[in-house]
């Protein structure tokens, strides 16, 4: 009854502050570029289950909320949290304190992290510091068909700041896997993802272009923190301009639009077979 009351308070509270609000690219639940979902029917629809689409950190009342939205959420094995497949590590960098290595998986970061949250089914969720010391249990539940919410009293950590940075790494839950992540093998199978990458992550909160894109991070095992404005800055305006110019050229060439740039139009006449003959 107490846990039900806490859940109702947490899910109904209005967020007072938003510390981070980032959208991630849709349809990129392919790891380093070529992962294929396991074949067992419990992984249907065989896409979207680990496709992170949105990440938000906010506070309401005495709680800190972390909301993670996915393209698909299913619960084939009836986990009490309302989801089964999604297994996410959220690393929080508060400045220069902590560690830049996560020892259980041997991955590295571009700056130190002070806290790491595990968001997973079957009561495995937790809040730890960079040394691996458990600071608090956290409550986790699927609050709708697309969103998983993790929350805990924010007096368990330093007062949240807008300049904190986050690394969000999404894999697939497996009770027998290394650090509870599902294995990726070259041949794949009913229970394994098919791929050749060295790390068990299916999606990463990352920019879409450049050296810090998801594919590069998962291939190298060096993961990059993001602040609340980073993905807004990553929009490829240069490529947009190139694309618009290219479309105009195609439209002009095949749409039979003629620009005269201020010059006199040449006179034209049709010959007997209907083609256009220009004359001065």
Word description of this protein:
- The structure is a single chain.
- This protein has 280 residues and is an alpha+beta fold.
- The protein folds into 2 domains: 2-233, Immunoglobulin-like (Sandwich); 237-279, no CATH class.
- The chain has 4 helices and 18 strands.
- The protein has helices at residues 2-12, 214-220, 230-233, 237-254, and strands at residues 17-23, 52-60, 63-70, 86-93, 99-102, 107-113, 115-119, 126-129, 134-137, 139-142, 147-153, 165-172, 184-185, 193-194, 203-204, 222-223, 267-270, 276-279.
- The strands form 5 sheets. A 6-stranded antiparallel beta sheet has the order 9-8-7-4-12-15, covered by helices on one side. It has a 5-stranded antiparallel beta sheet with strand order 1-2-3-11-10.
- A hairpin with a 4-residue loop joins strand 5 and strand 6.
- The longest helix has 18 residues, at 237-254.
- The model is unreliable at 1-14, 233-242 and 259-280 (pLDDT under 50).
Radius of gyration: 25 Å
Please tally the helical runs, counting DSSP H or I stretches of 4 or more residues: 4
Question: What is the number of domains?
Answer: 2
Shape: globular
Strand order of the largest sheet: 9-8-7-4-12-15
- Give helix % range: 10-25%
CATH architecture of the largest domain: Sandwich
Oligomeric state as shown: single chain
The CATH class name of the largest domain reads Mainly Beta
> Whole-number average pLDDT?
85
H/E series: HEEEEEEEEEEEEEEEHEHHEE
* Largest sheet data: 6 strands, antiparallel
N/C terminus separation: 91 Å
Low-confidence stretches: 1-14, 233-242, 259-280
Structural class: alpha+beta
Number of strands: 18
- And the CATH topology of the largest domain? Immunoglobulin-like
Strand composition percent = 25-35%
């Amino acid at each position: 009854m107490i846990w039900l009351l806490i859940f109702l308070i947490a899910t109904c509270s209005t967020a007072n502050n938003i510390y981070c609000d980032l959208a991630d690219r849709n349809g990129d639940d392919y790891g380093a570029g070529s992962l294929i979902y396991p074949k067992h029917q419990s992984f249907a629809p065989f896409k979207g289950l680990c496709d992170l689409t949105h990440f938000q950190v906010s506070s309401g009342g005495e709680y800190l909320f972390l909301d993670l939205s996915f393209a698909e959420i299913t619960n084939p094995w009836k986990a009490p949290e309302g989801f089964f497949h999604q297994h996410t590590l959220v690393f929080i960098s508060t400045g220069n304190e902590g560690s830049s290595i996560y020892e259980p998986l041997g991955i590295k970061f571009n700056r130190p992290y002070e806290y790491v949250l595990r968001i997973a089914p079957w009561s495995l969720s937790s809040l730890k510091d960079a040394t691996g010391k458990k600071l608090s249990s956290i409550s986790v539940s699927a609050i709708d068909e697309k969103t998983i919410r993790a929350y805990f009293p924010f007096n368990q950590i330093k007062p949240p700041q807008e300049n904190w940075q986050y690394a969000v790494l999404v894999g697939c839950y497996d009770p027998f896997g290394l650090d509870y992540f599902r294995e990726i093998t070259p041949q794949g199978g009913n229970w394994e993802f098919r791929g050749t990458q060295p790390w068990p992550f299916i999606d990463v909160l990352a920019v879409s272009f450049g050296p810090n894109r998801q594919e590069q991070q998962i291939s190298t095992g060096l993961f990059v923190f993001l602040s609340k404005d980073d993905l807004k800055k990553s929009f490829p305006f240069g490529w947009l301009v190139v694309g618009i110019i290219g479309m105009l050229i195609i439209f002009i060439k095949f749409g039979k639009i003629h620009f005269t740039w201020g010059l006199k139009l040449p006179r034209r006449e049709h010959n007997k077979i209907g083609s256009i003959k220009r004359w001065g």
